[in-house]
Fold this sequence. Notes:
This protein is mainly alpha-helical. The protein contains 16 helices and twelve strands. α2 (76-96) packs across α3 (102-117), α4 crosses α5 (167-180) and α11 (336-351) packs antiparallel against α12.
Amino acid sequence: xxxxxxxxxxxxxxxxxxxxxxxxxxxxxxxxxxxxxxxxxxxxxxxxxxxxxxxxxxxxxxxxxxxxxxxxxxxxxxxxxxxxxxxxxxxxxxxxxxxxxxxxxxxxxxxxxxxxxxxxxxxxxxxxxxxxxxxxxxxxxxxxxxxxxxxxxxxxxxxxxxxxxxxxxxxxxxxxxxxxxxxxxxxxxxxxxxxxxxxxxxxxxxxxxxxxxxxxxxxxxxxxxxxxxxxxxxxxxxxxxxxxxxxxxxxxxxxxxxxxxxxxxxxxxxxxxxxxxxxxxxxxxxxxxxxxxxxxxxxxxxxxxxxxxxxxxxxxxxxxxxxxxxxxxxxxxxxxxxxxxxxxxxxxxxxxxxxxxxxxxxxxxxxxxxxxxxxxxxxxxxxxxxxxxxxxxxxxxxxxxxxxxxxxxxxxxxxxxxxxxxxxxxxxxxxxxxxxxxxxxxxxxxxxxxxxxxxxxxxxxxxxxxxxxxxxxxxxxx
Length: 478
């Protein structure tokens, strides 16, 4: 954080929440409140060969560290930038014989930084690592076993010549990682690729309907305003996806972050009625029918997850169609079980290049999302973008351009104009605007030119569907 950014926020005691951050000046939607580099960060174990260990970009070919053979970088510039944080790690990996898990590597990086700089306030930090909450006392039996295993693995990896830390302090660091680890995404914001600790971000409390969002952009996290924030207002972000009823969100927050959510949307169960909506009117289904369809939806979602993991996408489509046939006469258009199936169906059908059917489902999904999500929600923006691209590929240029413009307006606020995904969207917006003009001037000629273009060049294949629709905010070890 720069001096100006530090002066724009203040650590304070938030009523009922403990420590929090409040604004010291006014912010408007899209303003960056602060940008913070990671105190320490690592790439996920499963992606160490395909993601740069400095900038966290996915690359086809990466340079490998010649000494430990473990760390990978975009180029020499990234490798040199990483050396301060990698030097001790490099030596320890060579001595240990292999790299430990991401949790151990992150803890080690934190403690090597403490060894270099001390455990007090680092430059640009409003709080120290020592002052971050660890919630170790709230851990259940399984979590305590995992903590003990992590501490033992850490002690086996930690070099004897490095500063030695007590068991209690090592446990504190692992507790901090468990409760405060922030998910790092790739350069386009589409895949979770690593985890880092950002002390200032850790001070921002949760609200299910927050006034801020967090985006990983160009090696830093940015805390961005979603709505007008006045001086003295508490800053908040959502730790979980809003697309769940208040009871389920509260259970998730209690399990993962050990607090009872008391936000207005949970206390008053705001929008729960929309998320559980059923068909109204003369054909209103019975409570028993609704219960049966909801249970069928839950069972289908479990089967779909297994099929997606195995790459059985045609089977996924078949299950989605069957489920939608049962849902549509019973569930309302904002019901979360209907929306989840619509989301999966549109994504998988797009991947299979069955764009017209995908576009129909995507439109219904977006219509439901718009009634539930905050208008400046990042996940809403990404969903609208996907729907726009699907319509564009389906040749539905008017609807496609409209959705891409809507998504662009949202992402300008949530991601900002410099984020790679916003830049990509701007290119798409210009392209679809040009095609729309052509369509409006001569519809017949537009489709002829489109047909000719498709014969010469296949439509770009959509990315393979993932079980993770978008990276979550905080990384919780499962």
